[in-house]
Amino acid sequence: QVQLVESGGGLVQPGGSLRLSCSASGVALDYFAIGWFRQAPGKEREAISCIRQTDSTTYYADSVQGRFTISRDTFRNSVILQMNSLKPEDTAVYYCAAAPEQSDMQATLALMELGSYWGLGTQVTVSS
Hints:
The protein is mainly beta. It has one helix at residues 105-114, and strands at residues 3-7, 10-12, 18-25, 33-39, 46-51, 58-60, 68-73, 78-83, 92-99, 122-126. The protein has a 6-stranded mixed sheet. Strands 1-3-8-7 form a 4-stranded antiparallel sheet, with no helix packed on it. It is globular.
């Protein structure tokens, strides 16, 4: 059973940075593609980043491209989402999800959406 836990959320001013971590117990995250999603109040859940299992290819949504960076911390069995230049519109609950890697990134993200390996989320609030 894969149990994911997000941490690192909080309140930050516009232009600030946060570092989110997705950690797991009972399984090595290196065996999965890991995605980050977010959901703001009244909005649909959005896939914002993903890192593949085999070659660590990454994906970023246009809304976060150039500001967010996803990476693996194999030693700590975690996946990091470094978020810089935060904007008020980044305010949301951030979730990580795991799934076996598929043939392409969109298929991998789709499998994550349907799968059962999700954390409970961490709140990120960007406000002055």
